[in-house]
């Protein structure tokens, strides 16, 4: 019987291992973490992350073949396959600060594996890491090996938060990179057999280690690039009277372009896109490719531009000042169906509004007041969208939660200051209907109301 241990019980480690456990009842899966509160939450009724369908999957196998533990060393020592799914944030100091990936957690996990292992191991990179990380990990493990044989595989995760369980049940592809040696191929095959329990063989791609590592960074860079491309178009649409939804639909019908990921918005967020592009930029610079580095940097610059353009639009529309005005923020998570606020555009938008002395009042169905306090160092949180918007001069919609489409906007309008503004950063509301109620509505990339046209945003 194969034993799997996963180091890191986060947004990736938790859901990924729960799905492996539910699909492979004969495999024992233990997820370990140094954070006791996180492990306690995984063992409780209130899981540490919100993800549609996750509760059911965890309930189906927890205590049977899925376990969560803080006894990291014991379970690593016992495992045949060790997934490493620790966080790999952007370095904040030292060489490469602000760009390079911080591999501190990864390195300490690797050293711990080397310390406690008594049998051969397959070590799987699940975290997103810079290309060539496997070489460094291999060195750490083999220099401390005590005669144990390690095989390093790269198996990057492509799940998206908010649809993690769906993505894991039916992945577009599973990617496994390994050494092109007999031992390497054997390790790739062993991991392939785990996924083959539910993923059709033709969807399991095997490559060399470097292709697998780089493909993850490349995939995130391409996805973020689509958002920045459509957001760049949204600014031009507002300037010309074109409608970005019509443009997206028209270009998305081209089968070479495709319809997905073409929604204009206040900007992308989440823990991965910015971090992984910065990482890619740094790798390009280190490899003497400044032109390539600058090309990808632009994807992030457009994202920053889109967030500040939104804030400028809000302020300029409201007579060039929001000082002392109540601005209700609907949605704080970086997208719907998650409570994750890492790198959410809402942080920058709120900071911009607070910088102009607005009174910001926030509502999000899945983000806690605690989290917002940590993100913004403020405590203005409402438990209800109607409470958040009461007495407000403006409403900003920053996350595309379905419930925001169904709010009683007449009631909201009645309780707001006039003129009442809605700035829809996700294009979720029916702008025409809201204009009928009396709102002044801004929708990203759509023809502007006469009011907004007269007060052009200073970008
Ligand atoms: P996370 O921060 O939610 O989870 C990481 C966990 O690792 C934390 O609970 C932390 O306590 C634990 N940890 C750190 N060092 C440890 C150690 N030495 N021993 C035991 N536990 C340790 O991070 P998340 O979001 O799960 O991301 C993990 C990796 O997966 C990152 O490299 C990320 O880029 C990548 N990824 C993330 C995706 C996402 O949507 N969040 C999607 C695909 C990949």
TrEMBL record:
Highest taxon above the source species: Eukaryota
The protein's enzyme class: oxidoreductase
Function: Involved in the biosynthesis of UDP-glucuronic acid (UDP-GlcA), providing nucleotide sugars for cell-wall polymers.
One of the record's GO molecular function terms: UDP-glucose 6-dehydrogenase activity
Entry keywords, A to Z: NAD, Oxidoreductase, Phosphoprotein
Annotated residues for binding of NAD(+): 8-13, 33, 38, 86-90, 127-128, 161, 272-275, 342
Database matches in SUPFAM superfamilies: 6-phosphogluconate dehydrogenase C-terminal domain-like, NAD(P)-binding Rossmann-fold domains, UDP-glucose/GDP-mannose dehydrogenase C-terminal domain
Any one GO BP annotation for this protein: glycosaminoglycan biosynthetic process
Active-site annotation: 272
Pathway annotation: Nucleotide-sugar biosynthesis; UDP-alpha-D-glucuronate biosynthesis; UDP-alpha-D-glucuronate from UDP-alpha-D-glucose: step 1/1
Record domain UDP-glucose/GDP-mannose dehydrogenase C-terminal: where: 328-431
Gene3D superfamilies listed in its UniProt record: Cytochrome c1, transmembrane anchor, C-terminal, NAD(P)-binding Rossmann-like Domain
Species per Swiss-Prot/TrEMBL record: Triticum turgidum subsp. durum (Durum wheat)
Family: Belongs to the UDP-glucose/GDP-mannose dehydrogenase family.
Catalytic activity: UDP-alpha-D-glucose + 2 NAD(+) + H2O = UDP-alpha-D-glucuronate + 2 NADH + 3 H(+)
Protein name according to UniProt: UDP-glucose 6-dehydrogenase
Pfam families with a match to the protein in the record: UDPG_MGDP_dh, UDPG_MGDP_dh_C, UDPG_MGDP_dh_N
One Gene Ontology cellular component: nucleus
InterPro entries: 6-PGluconate_DH-like_C_sf, NAD(P)-bd_dom_sf, UDP-Glc/GDP-Man, UDP-Glc/GDP-Man_DH_C, UDP-Glc/GDP-Man_DH_C_sf, UDP-Glc/GDP-Man_DH_dimer, UDP-Glc/GDP-Man_DH_N, UDPglc_DH_euk
Enzyme Commission number(s) of this protein: 1.1.1.22
